[in-house]
Each structure stands twice: as structure tokens, then as C-alpha cells.
Specification:
Elements (H helix, E strand, L loop, with lengths): L2 E6 L16 E2 L2 E2 H9 L5 E6 L2 H8 L6 E4 L7 H11 L4 E6 L7 H11 L4 E5 L9 E5 H13 L5 H5 L5 E5 H4 L15 H18 L3
Parallel strand pairs: 1-4, 1-6, 4-5, 7-9
Antiparallel strand pairs: 2-3, 6-8, 7-8
Helix pairs in contact: 3-5
């Protein structure tokens, strides 16, 4: 199976003030660089979804060998970025991830691709039923029409499109814990306080498991 990956970087990150989430750093690398480096261990191409050409110019200084796509409808959330990115993807199965999840793991992504084969997608789900649609693998042939239908109805929630898929494989976090015992790959950064907290947590994790 040939694989694509889509990084959703178009959000304004209002809780971080004027800072671009994708350009926050950990261990001397921006989140964008770290995520791209990790993704190229397991996919054939990486696409970065941005809100406009100005953001593309800013991020392109930190990204090479990637495709950039710009939102056609700005300020509508990640669903429009997913649509543009999937339409640009060369391969059917696409790992979609938000740019504020810099501690994703290639072995978890590999598992999601394997689980998604033959399905509309593979989406992690927490024990309380919450789903992780922005850390998931999708078949673009199946999800693009669902996204288009949601947008036509002015419904820009990611789960609006996902809920239309008929044959999704939901992967329990208990299963993922066999690979990522602390589920560090699902840590996301919304504020500087989140970043400070996760830096400490990941430092301990790295010392314990040797993960980088």
C-alpha cells in the first residue's frame, strides 16, 4: 500500500497569541519539522494544509519535499483543509494529523494504515467513545464525497463527514497501548502551558523508553 500523510496546519492557534502552532519547537526542531521527519519514516508523500499563501511562505522555510495546499474557504476549521489535502494526495490511503500533535509515532501510524486497508478508514477511539479523527487514516475515495456533502450543508465539523462513512474500523486505545503505553502520540498542544507540561512529560518518557 502506498501512503500519503496530511498535516493540518491552517489553524490560527488563538490561544497561543500570534505564534504559529506548527513553528513551536521541541528539542531544537519545530513541530512541523519534527512531524515531517517522523512521517517520512512511514509514508511516501507529505502534504501540508495551510490557510493562505502568506502562511505557506512562512512555513516553507521549515519544510522541503512537501506539497502545500491552501484552504479555499478560510476560517471554517480543519474540514476544508482535509478536502484540499486529500484532493492533492497521490495515494488513496492518507494519514491525517493536526500540527499540534508533535509526538506521533511511526509504529502507531503503521498500525493504523494496516488496520485501514479495505475499510473507509481507521480511527482511534477512547474508552468513553471519544474519537480522534485528526490522528487517523482515511480512504480518500470514500471520505472526499462525505466531506463535500458536509460542506454543501455548511456543516464544517470533521465528525459530520466521518459519521457518513459506512465501514470505519475503530481502534481502541487499549490496543494502541500495546505500542504506545502512555499514549504520548495523542498529546496535543493548545497553550503555552500545555507545551511546558508536555515537555516535562515527554522528557520523562524519553528517559524511560528511549523514544525521540
Amino acid at each position: 500500500m502506498q501512503r500519503s500523510a496530511l498535516i493540518l496546519a491552517g489553524g490560527k492557534g488563538t490561544r497561543l497569541g500570534t505564534q504559529e502552532k506548527a513553528l513551536l519547537s521541541y528539542n531544537g526542531k519545530t513541530f512541523l519539522e519534527k512531524t515531517m521527519s517522523l512521517l517520512y519514516q512511514t509514508v511516501d508523500e507529505v502534504i501540508v494544509s495551510v490557510r493562505d499563501k502568506e502562511q505557506q511562505k512562512t512555513l516553507s522555510e521549515y519544510a522541503s519535499d512537501v506539497k502545500f495546499v491552501c484552504d479555499k474557504q478560510q476560517g471554517k476549521g480543519p474540514l476544508t483543509g482535509m478536502l484540499q489535502g486529500m484532493q492533492a494526495a497521490s495515494h488513496n490511503y492518507i494519514f491525517v494529523v493536526a500540527c499540534d500533535m508533535p509526538f506521533i509515532r511511526s509504529d502507531v501510524i503503521d498500525m493504523l494504515f494496516e488496520e485501514a486497508e479495505g475499510y473507509d478508514g481507521a480511527i482511534p477511539v477512547w474508552s468513553d467513545g471519544r474519537k480522534e479523527p485528526l490522528h487517523a487514516v482515511y480512504s480518500k475515495e470514500r471520505v472526499i464525497p462525505a466531506i463535500e456533502r458536509s460542506i454543501l450543508k455548511y456543516n464544517y465539523r470533521v465528525m459530520s463527514a466521518v459519521s457518513q462513512l459506512c465501514d470505519v474500523k475503530f481502534i481502541s486505545m487499549d490496543k494502541i497501548k500495546h505500542i504506545d503505553s502512555d499514549l504520548i502520540s495523542f498529546a496535543n498542544i493548545n497553550t503555552l502551558a500545555d507545551l511546558e507540561f508536555i515537555n516535562k512529560k515527554v522528557h520523562v518518557y524519553e528517559q524511560t523508553y528511549g523514544y525521540r
